[in-house]
Specification:
- The protein is α/β, with parallel strands linked by helices.
- It has 14 helices and 15 strands.
- Strands 7-6-5-8-10-9 form a six-stranded mixed beta sheet.
- α4 packs across α5.
- It is elongated.
Length: 448
């Protein structure tokens, strides 16, 4: 019935032993009609020692509903494997679907179970940089922070050996100059972090804005500090910043890629510290030694070039955060010229101002321009919508056990694209709403 419905003209030509029309989709298959009146592939395998279904498979049109049913049936028979498995099962059963590869790919793309097993995470065009990374400001006015560690240190020596304890570190990074500052803490508690933040502000000056993930010690500290907590999913509140107070902006949970500006600094600091600890025996690592190593890590990281190193001999100075922090562009000269007290003060402020001007001028021309291109996430994709059925990533369980939920809120960023969503799932029979980045979301069914 399907063949007579679609290939009526070809069947009439074959029955009357006439040539097929040149525009026929079957002309390359050299079709034949068997004793039951079914249209089969003639092909070039007539002399092969194969079954009738393998030598002359039945011809099925791709745009018919029967073709869709056949593809779904054999796709389930091969337990939702790829296109090659499904196409092989179809041909082994004696079916030749015209344009079958495209039909199989289309149906596999829409298969919900395949999306659950192998679907890709959602992504969106890389967002524009926030304003607090594009305008010059005093160092460590706008910062990002995170913790790293722990390390086991020797706290005191006893007759039976040594007493050990753990230490962590908080890394502060300036969003403008890309300088870092590291403070060692004794425990991952809000109280310990508050002391750490007070030491940092005492050394580096007041902070206007802090960005971080949702570490429990960070969230707990905001309850005791005089700061304005802003969640990135609170769009109306995000634009409202108080003057002369610290504003704390939290990234969504499980979105470390949104804090790449400090995550990269943590990776660099870890590699430098690992190299230092390789040459130091573990029993010699004390709190004082660890603090000294952290200071050396800061010095190394802050001396790194933040712009491509120029080979021009007329510009030998490397643009680094230390150029602004220490106001030293290189080695200190030992050639002194006799000056009076007036020249001392005049030369000092001019030298400081000159070095600062050089830094910010090169910062705009060399470093800032290097941030223009998008290294990944380079295309705009359709946004997730309220009502979409999605699979929520859960690192604690296997993928087949990840919960299925529905999007209840699609949160748009400043550029108007959805990068965060709120998903309602069922946990132990109770509905729970999670805020997650789209990088943890796999779309199953789009709400039309």
């Amino acid at each position: 019935m399907v063949q007579h419905e679609v290939f009526a003209q070809e069947i009439m030509c074959l029955q009357s032993r006439k040539s097929l029309p040149r525009n026929s989709s079957l002309i390359a298959l050299n079709p034949i009609i068997d004793e039951k009146g079914l249209l089969r592939v003639g092909g070039r395998l007539k002399r092969g020692y194969l079954s009738i279904n393998e030598r002359h498979p039945l011809i099925i049109p791709k745009n018919h509903h029967v073709a869709i049913l056949l593809v779904r049936h054999f796709h389930e028979a091969v337990k939702h494997q790829g296109r090659h498995f499904t196409a092989g099962a179809l041909q082994s059963a004696g079916y030749w679907i015209i344009g079958g590869k495209r039909l199989i790919s289309s149906l596999l793309h829409k298969c919900i179970k395949c999306r659950r097993l192998r679907g890709k995470y959602q992504c969106q065009l890389m967002s524009d940089l926030p304003a607090d990374r594009l305008q010059p400001s005093p160092p460590f006015t706008f910062i990002g922070l995170d913790t790293l560690g722990p390390w086991s240190i020797v706290t005191r020596k006893t007759r039976g050996g040594a007493s050990n304890s753990k230490r962590w570190a908080v890394l502060f990074t300036c969003l403008y100059t890309r300088a870092i500052h590291i403070e060692v803490i004794e425990e991952l508690s809000s109280s310990s972090f508050i002391n750490c933040l007070r030491r940092f502000i005492s050394l580096r000056g007041n902070v206007k804005e802090i960005r971080s993930d949702r570490g429990s010690n960070f969230v707990g500290a905001t309850e005791d500090l005089d700061v304005n907590v802003i969640n990135v999913e609170d769009n109306p509140v995000r634009e409202f910043l108080y003057d002369q107070k610290v504003t704390w902006i939290f990234n969504p949970p499980h979105s470390s890629h949104m804090g790449g500006v400090w995550e990269r600094m943590i990776g660099i600091a870890r590699r430098i510290l690992d190299s230092m600890l390789m040459d130091l025996h573990s029993r010699h690592l004390t709190h004082e030694v660890l603090t000294t190593l952290m200071a050396e890590v800061c010095a190394i990281v802050n001396s790194r070039p933040i712009a491509p190193v120029c080979s021009d001999p007329e510009s030998p100075v490397i643009l680094s955060p230390n150029m602004l922090l220490t106001q030293k562009s290189g080695e200190i000269s030992t050639n002194f010229v006799q000056q009076d007290i007036k020249d001392l003060y005049k030369a000092q402020w001019r030298c400081v101002q000159h070095l600062a001007n050089i830094f910010w001028d090169r910062w705009k021309k060399e470093y800032l321009q290097a941030l223009q291109s998008r290294t990944k996430w380079q295309s705009v994709v359709p946004d997730l919508c309220v009502g979409d059925i999605v699979l929520l990533k859960d690192q604690t369980t296997a993928r087949i056990e990840w919960p299925i939920g529905i999007i209840t809120n699609a949160i748009k960023s400043v550029d108007g694209r959805v990068c965060k969503v709120q998903v309602k799932v069922s946990r132990d029979g109770k509905p729970i709403v999670y805020t997650r980045p789209i990088s943890d979301i796999i779309l199953l069914i789009h709400d039309e």
